[in-house]
Amino acid sequence: MNSFGRIFRVHIFGESHGESVGIVIDGVPAGLPLTADDLLPDLERRKGGKQKGTTPRQEADYPFFKSGIFNNKATGAPITIFFENNNTRSGDYEKQRSFPRPGHADFVAHQKYGGNEDFRGGGHFSARLTTGLVAAGAIAKKMMPGVNIHAEVTEIGGEKDLELGLQKAIDAKDSVGGVVECRVSGLPATLGEPFFDSVESHIAHIAFAIPAVKGVEFGSGFAAAKMFGSQHNDAIENMEGKTSSNHAGGIVGGISNGNELVFRIAIKPTASTPKQQHSLNWETGNMEDFSIKGRHDLCVALRAPVILEAATAVALADLMLLEQRIQRVWK
Amino acid sequence: MNSFGRIFRVHIFGESHGESVGIVIDGVPAGLPLTADDLLPDLERRKGGKQKGTTPRQEADYPFFKSGIFNNKATGAPITIFFENNNTRSGDYEKQRSFPRPGHADFVAHQKYGGNEDFRGGGHFSARLTTGLVAAGAIAKKMMPGVNIHAEVTEIGGEKDLELGLQKAIDAKDSVGGVVECRVSGLPATLGEPFFDSVESHIAHIAFAIPAVKGVEFGSGFAAAKMFGSQHNDAIENMEGKTSSNHAGGIVGGISNGNELVFRIAIKPTASTPKQQHSLNWETGNMEDFSIKGRHDLCVALRAPVILEAATAVALADLMLLEQRIQRVWK
Amino acid sequence: MNSFGRIFRVHIFGESHGESVGIVIDGVPAGLPLTADDLLPDLERRKGGKQKGTTPRQEADYPFFKSGIFNNKATGAPITIFFENNNTRSGDYEKQRSFPRPGHADFVAHQKYGGNEDFRGGGHFSARLTTGLVAAGAIAKKMMPGVNIHAEVTEIGGEKDLELGLQKAIDAKDSVGGVVECRVSGLPATLGEPFFDSVESHIAHIAFAIPAVKGVEFGSGFAAAKMFGSQHNDAIENMEGKTSSNHAGGIVGGISNGNELVFRIAIKPTASTPKQQHSLNWETGNMEDFSIKGRHDLCVALRAPVILEAATAVALADLMLLEQRIQRVWK
Amino acid sequence: MNSFGRIFRVHIFGESHGESVGIVIDGVPAGLPLTADDLLPDLERRKGGKQKGTTPRQEADYPFFKSGIFNNKATGAPITIFFENNNTRSGDYEKQRSFPRPGHADFVAHQKYGGNEDFRGGGHFSARLTTGLVAAGAIAKKMMPGVNIHAEVTEIGGEKDLELGLQKAIDAKDSVGGVVECRVSGLPATLGEPFFDSVESHIAHIAFAIPAVKGVEFGSGFAAAKMFGSQHNDAIENMEGKTSSNHAGGIVGGISNGNELVFRIAIKPTASTPKQQHSLNWETGNMEDFSIKGRHDLCVALRAPVILEAATAVALADLMLLEQRIQRVWK
User: How far is D326 from chain A (nearest CA, A)?
Assistant: First the structure.
């Protein structure tokens, strides 16, 4: 459902154009120093409107702590973080309600919830909900001081030259997909649980929860499928397990091996393309031409790195607690 | 840990060269007709030694029901299935214990379990454990009579011509990777839960539990990252939600949309390549030459389709039960 | 942790003297009509200050829906309910911080959270958190229209005459314990899961989460331990399973049998007795005399019935969903 | 379902007259020395036929390790333990199938599983399944070397003089109930989680899974409901939290406080009384006289202490791991 994690547990809630979005975070070690300032840099990175190709919608995105913090430290009780939705223009969405937008959850949400879903701006399916995830990620990062998580866009529209990739989309007046790579250094070996809770399973589970993600690969990933064993195997160099190459992306047998964790996600083009589309009109029952209104990212991949970092941090913090690599009371 | 699922729950156990491997399956609807014959076809497909490029190790792989079956029907209580390990040659592994095998879990398992792990044949990390998963998958398939799950190898060593791909590896005397594609027809819309338990999350979680899987992509997957929105969006054709294309692979917003579910996994080359390797010797602390003994698949992807089908069936049966698409008592 | 339930899931948060308390409720069927008015009657019952023996602290206790409601119906997404804490007098607690109050969580919370806990008014351990539980219970009740849940105080201070029991405490200027009985009619048979998730297990789990509960018994309960089998066995009268007596309290083999569900909880005397106490002073390390300040219930059992009803409703709604006795979309 | 625990997880399976009963135990620290000899003393205590008032049915009850053990130590992988059912006389049960036995699960199991349940000897509802639980308990005890768990019968048929209580039943040719008390010394403070996973919740959950348990009370329990606060509060004597009395039974605010854990369970009389009964005949639809055949305990409470110890150990080991009081690799 809307929860993730075994010991470090997050519960997400909210709708794009409802009153708020937010998250409840259970399992933060008591004593962890924590203020809004710890969250703001990542929340700022998540915002659109700052760079070419992102939505002009701007929310203050200020994280209101509603529980779990006392004297600027985590108490050990659940931390609730709220974000108000102030800058919504639901009217845009009402108008196009007759068209379930291709690539969006409109049609499936209507089927699943019998028409009771909050459809405005994608409702509970909106990427706006990742605000809470980014907040949880910032806390998770702080729980793992020696661990460095960094994600970045490595490809837009098939181009490694990101500017070129983006300009292609701007010129085509179309949205475009991209690839985001995440690297984690300082991660200890022994994380991950057999059989079902491999590091790959745990990270992929939450990575696929990020809207628009359609692929996840670790280390050489799909390229590994084209390789010989003698090429792919990472020779072990020393008693600490350092490997001379890293085709495995830092995970062997589902367990972290102490080398850099490396993985990539494929992000589909923003479903809300500016282009005219031809699809079902719910009211007439026929396919008709229509255009998407509202403010949207041309390339959602551009906003994904900080979200992917957050998802990764949440997954790893849970595995770290499970493996007793984080104390439950902060010194 | 070694469990998967929320309502349809599987618990896996066993070691490659221990006494047995098996699985406990909770949540099978009472009344489902079930005998060993229902499991044997898929178990037969999982076995090696039948085709070029698979291990000559042969196990009878006969599924012994130890609980949960009465009068050839599921009782509603947990079903326990046992496979005996009769055909083991642990001596092969003892000899090479001084080398933690690159690409295998030897090194990480030793770190994680402090040297107490059963290392013979990979122990609990062995692909032999997928026997239980295949059994569970056969049961899950039977629980969903209208749903058809089919997986097949679509690429070996980068070649769509599988014979060619495999021959390349045989000629090179090396192991090789591959891609397996899975297609599911007859799946109802509305499966999957927001935010964290998307169909992609649920399937990827269990798919990454299959040994050697390093990538999972749905629909167009990584190719979607290279596309424009106008290319990727699947237009909706009618009130049932049929789409004119299927770049989404049957999942939008994390929810199944009633179209064919399509996804692929990347399988790395068998870590046990016949080629000589140069890696750490635990006893000397130095990197040295060595060769892998034992019986191994040249291309594990060849045995993966039925395992992937099983993983998919287990994940979908759980989502179907959660969405009340399967009755808990069989009529 | 702070979550309960498998399909109908509640996540509780907040502190007595923090900014708020509340709850996130996942798994409410889409379409369920829901407004604050549905919650207010039970919330009103939970409040103190209305009857002799309850705390004069008064909160407005108005439930603010922050997510999951659209057009006065549940959307199928998580419902977040907030209660503001307006009427706090933390100063009362600061003064007596040097004495970890006997019978309260002060000492254990300090040990568990290393002194980082929000100690004001019991913080996260306060009975104030049951406000959220009562709100969830009101929703759960509404999900089960044919099921009637009713709890009431049956004993105070050992007296069946409640007025007498309470007056004894008032006269003694002491707090006092009590017994609350809960009866559920209209409950279908077949609820509960073997082996570990019996109806008794599920209900007792959440009942013991209510502050001050020290015992739970079903049907004849502890009296059953004094009986012969021929006295205790409930003869079955007809094909619907109606029994001629109900010593089992409606549960046999852990499964509901369609008869009335009956159980009782023992509630200890309010730890905050008005009497002077002699216990550890943290600052001096010695036992010293002190008195509890603040506003407290003389008999918390008086406020417990609606909380116990809520806990019961939450547990039963989860079991009902699991047994597919509630549709996930409301018609 | 048939699983319990968050980190130390047990999965139970089997039927009374099927091929076997057993348990899968996940989360045992790697390196823990473990052989059948560690389990036999508790398994021996669980057996009937040794003392007056217990069933003459005798099983060898030898625990066969099927996974998770290597070189007489836990490997960190799931431990599977099997018990064969050799000494069954199902014929006894076939004959009385027309009468759903009062106090047994026959009727509810038939309703829940649509007649597909294994009804022989109670099937999956039989107390025979506690064999696996006792095995898991013995392992859990070994994981907590400083913790001493001891349970004993304190009352039979309302008599503190156990011989007297039992003789009353023998004379009456009837089965009889009893009370079992469990005491745990050496338990650290800080176990248990707010809000829902109090120590009481966790222990009561598994205690109510034991067949025939109808009540659970901690410390003074139901007697606390008759007390004044000044009587019930346990004064704290020193900085370690030692209390001068122990009405709380070692748990305050749901958290262990380092004092002795004390609780009791009420066990109903064995449902299979030797007395003639008058209840529904499924075949005729009428109430008729009948007598129970088979071998049964006159007082199941007599066999309960070791089962309750096991349940307690399993619950506490899980809380200890969660609180990081047990290392996941054994030194």
Answer: 10
pLDDT for residue D58: 63
pLDDT at position A246: 98
Q: Which residue of A has its CA nearest to B211?
A: A253
B323 and C328 within 8 Å at the Cβ level: the answer is yes
Q: What is the DSSP string of A176-206?
A: B-EEEEEEEESPPTT-S-SSS--HHHHHHHH
Residues of A in contact with B228 (CB under 8 A): 157, 169, 172, 174-176, 269, 273, 275
3-state secondary structure of D202: helix
Q: What is the DSSP letter of D23?
A: E
Average of pLDDT values for C146-158? 98
Strand B213-218 relative to strand B79-84: parallel, antiparallel, unpaired? unpaired
Which helix (H) or strand (E) covers residue B229, if one does?
Answer: helix B229-232
Q: Which of D4, D11, D32, D329 to mutate to test the interface with B (most CBs of B within 10 A)?
A: D11
User: Is some CB atom of chain B closer than 8 A to the CB atom of D5?
Assistant: no
Is C9 in CB contact (< 8 Å) with chain D? Answer: no
> Any CB–CB contact under 8 A between C129 and chain B?
no
CB pairs under 8 A between A and B: 360
Greatest alpha-carbon span in chain C: 69
Backbone dihedral angles phi then psi of residue C103, each to the nearest 5 degrees = 85, -10
Instruction: Tell whether C194 is within 8 A of chain B (Cβ).
Output: yes
| Interhelix angle B36-46/B304-322, nearest 10 degrees | 140
The pLDDT of residue D93 is 57
pLDDT at residue D165 is higher than 80: yes
**In chain A, domain spans:** 3-322
> Could you give the CA distance from residue B130 to residue B297 in angstroms, rounded to a whole number?
15
pLDDT of residue C12: 98
DSSP string, A73-96: EE-SSPEEEEEE--S--THHHHHT
- What single-letter amino acid sits at A18? G
Q: What is the CATH number of domain C3-322?
A: 3.60.150.10
pLDDT recorded at residue B159: 98
Beta bridge partners of C150: C183
For chain A, residues with pLDDT lower than 50 are: none
List chains touching C (3+ CB pairs under 8 A): A, B, D
How far is it, in rounded angstroms, from Cα D248 to Cα C102? Answer: 10
